[in-house]
Write a structure and sequence with these properties.
Blueprint: H1 2-21, H2 26-42, H3 47-62
């Protein structure tokens, strides 16, 4: 299990770097940063769920979305 924490921690660091490098309007960057901070905080409680949420966050960034699609 500790290896899962290490892998997730590295992925979260990369996601934070990637977000900082994006050229977004300040309000969009702040919205994405809040989402990533919430995800980071959640990782302290459930590594598997946080990893899945991180996958979704990165997929949204890849698709040019700052917030998840709302169904």
């Amino acid at each position: 299990m500790p290896d899962d924490f290490v892998v997730l921690a590295e992925r979260l660091k990369q996601a934070h770097r990637r977000l900082r490098a994006l050229d977004l309007p300040p309000q969009d960057k702040a919205r994405a940063a809040r989402r990533l901070i919430a995800l980071t905080d959640a990782s302290k409680h459930d590594v598997a769920r946080a990893s899945a949420r991180l996958d979704a966050f990165l997929a949204d960034l890849d698709a040019g979305r700052v917030t998840p699609d709302e169904d």
